[in-house]
């Protein structure tokens, strides 16, 4: 059974007198553990699609089942709960709380899941271990490199053990080497059963996905499966 | 999300901008401080009035003899003795809402000790007097009914008189003084009462049995009581009723036909006291209202800074929403922030207010009274200010669209 099931989803905005058709009838099924790249130019509707998949927005019409549950008609608070339990977000700009440590940043979703302080600490620690930052729990974002900050953000995304991770241009602010590290981390998460939906406009990032969906003018233009290129980080050139 | 976690998040957010948080709090500190200090002054004035009237005696009525009328010229109240000793007995025994009554005959006389003398007020009365005026002795005892019946030459001295004749704090019980050349034995010294609500010195007086007063000071006994009658009503609620009952009784005893003016007058001192207290209360309200305005301004300061804070942290709010914060979580977070500012301001404001009240009391000699409930109300009110003025920014934050908020620059 697919984890994400969109059926004929549309999204219209009212901008003054003009109605904007951001999405015009999108149907998309994503299987659990899949690594999907959504591509498209700006204004193509890919952000709208991602917001709907991420339960930040609701479709104007059509149906959306997430993990077997109809979520297209839920109210904002119910959607907040769905996001908390089923979805992890990774953003281009990391969106970490600058005055909080890595550990506290990762704990944040657990606060809204009513997890006790002790349990929060334990799970946040485990999540940071998993993204390879177990040694930097008390560092603040300003003390971490871009790649490390994005790892903290990924730790925050997985700490509630979500079904789906939504990454919106997660490598947009990173150099190519660090980008590969992050993609490798996503591939690893995919292998452990988490579905990764990655929005990007970079072809060489998308080629690491097992499925590439191209959105244009609010519709799916192409949807193809392919053998993903494993993200292999080249070893650093040792200075002699 | 539990309240502890919410408070922690709020306090951390406030500590991020220490100067700003402090300045915002300062508005509340000044507001609450002003309320506390102003109310303390108002309450102090009220308590002073209350105390003065309490010293005068509780539930007190004064019955004055009537006016004389000779050849069309009408004298004032008390110009003619119309009240008899039998009237006093009747008031004591026949009026249900009267607890007790005592005559009060007064004159000014020179009082002479062995080596000093002093002009003071002589009161001739009955033992009930001490109870009605709730006046106790520091040394010795007040005289009793046997002394009145026997016309004993005994005297109870007020503090001022003791001071003038024997020196401050002396105990002259057992010694003799002379009034109008008649030797009196001092049997008691009264506790200090201080000033009357009208500025008289209560303690500049000596008290002797009414019978002795009539015989030795006034000269000659008569059926008329040439003074006043002090009456204590059974309770503060019954003073008006007692007044009416005494009036009815005296009209009947004096055989006054309907339509004829009273030949006596009854003053209800409880009414005077209430009027005085009301004016003190008005003072308190005016002072507190002015102070409350500054508290209001403090509240507006909180609202202002919370709006700025919400705008600054739009992306943080968006992120919190994205990872699962519900609207009420965001609402609570900002409301608790506003509440923290205002309650901390309230607590420091109380401290400032107490200090200010104490300083003013010392500096200007104003009586101040700090009521614990006013402190509680002030802190409660400042908390309410935080909630009221924090609500709009917090609502604004909780209504943000997470998509827009995350995109905010």
Give a verbal description of the structure.
The complex is a heterodimer of chains A (240) and B (409). Chain A contains 7 helices and 10 strands. Chain A starts with a strand and ends in a 15-residue tail after the last strand. Chain A has helices spanning 46-53, 76-86, 102-111, 117-130, 146-158, 176-191, 203-206, and strands at 4-15, 18-30, 35-39, 61-66, 69-70, 87-90, 164-168, 195-200, 211-216, 219-225. In chain A, helix 6 links the parallel strand 7 and strand 8 (195-200). Chain A has a 6-stranded mixed beta sheet with strand order 6-7-8-3-9-10, with helices on both faces. The mean pLDDT of chain A is 91. Chain A has 240 residues and is α/β, with parallel strands linked by helices. The longest helix of chain A is centred in the last third of the chain and has 16 residues, at 176-191. In chain B, helix 2 crosses helix 11 (327-364) and helix 3 packs across helix 8 (239-253). Classes of the chains: A alpha/beta (240), B alpha+beta (409). The A-B interface holds A 51, 54, 56-57, 76-77, 80-81, 83-85, 89, 91, 95, 97, 99, 108-109, 111-114, 117, 156, 160 and B 1-2, 5, 9, 12, 16, 315-316, 318-329, 402-403, 406.
The secondary-structure class of chain B comes to alpha+beta
- What's the quaternary structure here? heterodimer
Total strands of chain B: the figure is: 12
Question: Quick one: overall form of chain A?
Answer: globular
End-to-end gap of chain A: 54 Å
Number of strands of chain A: 10
SSE sequence of chain B, one letter per element: HHEEEHEEHEHEHEEEHEHEHHHHH
Q: Mean pLDDT of chain A, rounded to whole units?
A: 91
C-alpha-based Rg of chain B, rounded:
33 Å
Give the C-alpha Rg of chain A: 18 Å
Reading side by side through the largest sheet of chain A, how are the strands ordered? 6-7-8-3-9-10
Helix/strand order of chain A: EEEHEEHEHHHEHEHEE
Q: How would you classify the helix and strand content of chain A by structural class?
A: alpha/beta
Helix content of chain A: 25-40%
